[in-house]
Amino acid sequence: MSRGGPRGKVPGMRLRFGPLPPDWPESVVPWMAEALPREALDAGKFARQALCDPNFDPEGLVLAFDGDLPIGLVWAVHRSVPLENAPPDGDRGYLVLLAVREGFRRRGVGRALVERAEAFLRGRGARSAWVCGYAPGYFLPGADLAYPGGCELLTACGYREVYQPIAMQAELWDLRVPDWVRERAARLSQEGVRVEPFHAALTLPTLEFAREHFRGDWVRWAKEAIRDITLGDDPRRLMLAWRNPDRPEVLAYSHYGGERFGPIGVRESERGRGIGQVLLYETLQAQKARGFRCSWFLWSDDRTADRLYRAAGFREIRRFAYLRKEL
Ligand SMILES: CC(C)(COP(=O)(O)OP(=O)(O)OC[C@H]1O[C@@H](n2cnc3c(N)ncnc32)[C@H](O)[C@@H]1OP(=O)(O)O)[C@@H](O)C(=O)NCCC(=O)NCCS
After folding, report:
1. Most buried among 1, 139, 143, 254, using CB within 10 Å?
2. pLDDT class for 230, splitting at 50, 70, 90?
């Protein structure tokens, strides 16, 4: 990684770049947590989600310093460990984290960090850079529109918006299953669709469903949920809609982990029958029964929000810009 001198406008600063300093929990995390206040960032989360990420490469983590003082950070990822069942994405790179310490902004530090991250990604063979959509360890679906400067900086650096993912939350205090959802559940049951918590006999049909109908990160979600459930976690953590006891076929699943809802997915050929609504309410009831007072998720699009989530009481709590740039 280059530790060269300043680029761009850096009046009054002794700007240099380097790796994560050994005292990062004290010298870096506190101002990053302030720059990204909605992420509840602490040293544990940074260690777990960034440093232990399967694709973490120290060269992709660039710190900016004013003299010896850390004042900025960018973490870029290029995949070296393939994601099970996902198409290869070696032509892409991801900017996962970016922050500049308050008091050091609008002096070109953010832009210089983005440029270094892009140089790292280009060197690894990426032809485009994305903010963000990185799995498995993503922090955010994109730049939170409520954070000051993120979208503006990235736009100034040549990034263009792909679309705006939204995060939503539902209060569970007064959760009631509407009559029309109960009626749909009864009709599905008459039609031979069972809606049940995961049990071990459904392991292979569940994995087959995730593999064939939802490429990408779904197989990992399913495996993690199955591992946790078989070690004693709530089986309702993974609710399944399935049919054909002689040769079980999973049509849909819905998942939660703590207060976090999702993913939920219905096989394309089975959409429009109410399976998604029924599973959604099953999962919300399971979360409520575990004592959670709200349910939230980080990533939906406006169309799915309108079709599925708003009717169940979810409201938008965050909006992101999902951005890309050709390198
Ligand atoms: C976004 C952030 C990293 C920018 O860092 P920075 O060092 O201030 O950025 P730069 O000085 O390099 O800005 C470069 C250009 O980006 C644009 N820009 C940056 N911040 C801006 C702001 N608050 N408002 C409008 N434009 C802005 C400007 O075009 C700027 O050029 P200019 O100063 O000549 O007008 C910093 O504001 C931050 O940490 N914000 C909170 C965390 C965050 O949003 N991270 C991004 C999530 S992906």
Report:
1. 254
2. very high
Residue 3 lies in a domain: no
Protein residues with CB under 6 Å of any ligand 1 atom: 35-36, 98-100, 105-111, 131, 143, 147-150, 152-153, 156
Q: What is the DSSP string of 178-202?
A: -HHHHHHHHHHHHTT-EEEE--GGG
Q: How far apart are CA 44 and CA 212, in angstroms?
A: 35
Residue 110 Cα to ligand 1 midpoint, Å, equals 6
**pLDDT tens, position by position, 188-199:** 999 999 999 999
Q: Which domain holds residue 153?
A: 15-161
Together in a domain, 314 and 194 = yes
Protein residue with least CA distance to atom 3, ligand 1:
99
- Model pLDDT, residue 68: 96
Is residue 159 a contact partner of residue 131, using CB atoms and an 8 Å limit?
yes
Whether this model's pTM surpasses 0.85:
yes
Ligand 1: centre distance to CA 95 (Å) = 15
